[in-house]
What does this fold into?
Amino acid sequence: MDDKPDGRNDNPASVGRRDLMIGATLATAPFAKAATAQVTATQEGMTGRTEVSLTVNGEAKRLSLDPRASLLDTLREELALTGAKKGCDHGQCGACTVHLDGRRIASCLTLAVQADGCAVTTIEGVSPEDGSLHPMQQAFIDHDALQCGYCTPGQIMAAIACVREGHVGNADEIREYMSGNLCRCGAYAGILAAIQDAASKMRAG
Amino acid sequence: MRPFTYARAGDEAAAIRAVSSGGRGTRFLAGGTTLYDLMKLGAEAPERLVDISALPGLASFDTAGPRELVFGAGARMSDVAADSRLVAEYPALSESLWKAASQQLRNMASLGGNLLQRTRCAYFRGGEPFACNKRTPGSGCAAREGIDRGHAVLGGSEACIATYPGDWAVALVAFDAVVDVAGPNGARTIPLQALHREPGTTPEVETSLARDEMILRIRVPATPLGRASTYHKIRDRESYAFALASAAVALWMEGDVVREARIALGGLATRPWRAQEAEAGLVGRPLTLEAARAAGEAALRNARPGHHNAFRIELGTRTVAEALLIAQRRA
It folds into this structure.
């Protein structure tokens, strides 16, 4: 379940995958050969990087971003926070769920530039500093609420928000308010049990 | 994705000026849940985005007024869905919001942007090699000879049978809502009923808004029909899916007799679809099971099936009937 950043992404200053993808897009544009200079000028003129300030898991970050970048790609590729996952990249699966100013959102459908000035919390930021787990993380382990684990960071971020919103009154309400997070392994029974368990602990704690 | 420039507007007037003077490729950006999604698919390719999502004047809403409910276009779906007065007094409006999308998306999406949500037609979203008159005018309609299970049975044309996917607009149409919009030449008010267009021969033109007109607020006349109302949404799965058929229904009962009824259909038509003939047939009579069924049949009378969607005519009929009985229990 724990998916710490690995060595590949440790240096956000290095050329990222996204830069390479932008290069590839340009190279395959139908008019690239005929008017390379013009395209390059357009590219620079139009995507001129935008300065964005974010507070991510309590740390202030200042980034210079292509306006096209999603918050998800920014977290994963600029900040090496790979907990939030890219499942569908279209807001349909919930694997990318993070909290923006305390509310759960789909980070794949959020332009990073729109989050300028906001506080972002990812799965990497939910556990206390003493190294213990958030009650929701612990409950997911205790109730076997995952199999492959790919959807789990998004499930946990959605579940924490679900409790804070007060949408855990009964099993049906939890199912309704967790429906934005798909689990293709089908661990829903464990996820439901974990949320019910963690909800009481979060309220007590 | 095509490169674009991004700017955050300081106020409504500045946003309208920027979009108006920016030319054809300039668009308003609110929650982004539709626009950014379609940009990733190449179905939208704006050159300039003017972000109106943080404008403070658009975010508020007031459901307590004696004459009308007022919803700022920038209010988030989740906040409005949870409004306790809306839940109690206008359940159809609240349900149309919380039965749409997921809580993540409802936290992002604005009420105004939701009205302008574009179709989920897979040929429109997918593009090449499939023809789509909405995406590329004049290219044809792959859905007419393709998989049309989710496509419209009401309001379609030779050029397009794409379903209007939203829920909120359907409930608003039932309540005679209006939208206040502003553009470079001033403000105007449009009945919600006149906001969305049937596709006809120009399916790429989906609303009566100019490109540089911005929705400021939505207003709903206060009405005793609110309380006995429901938004009944039937889907392939119980939650987080678009409607196969839905009905926004509101009733004003005098004893057992219907004094006034409102019926609008979602998921079945190319635009939010008010069924006034079906409403009229209910007035002055007791609301029996048979009367509810007859209203459903009247609402779908002009429906035309395609290859794979005929079942949704009967489904829509039953959805209307069931919605009427749910609303009746709330009277």
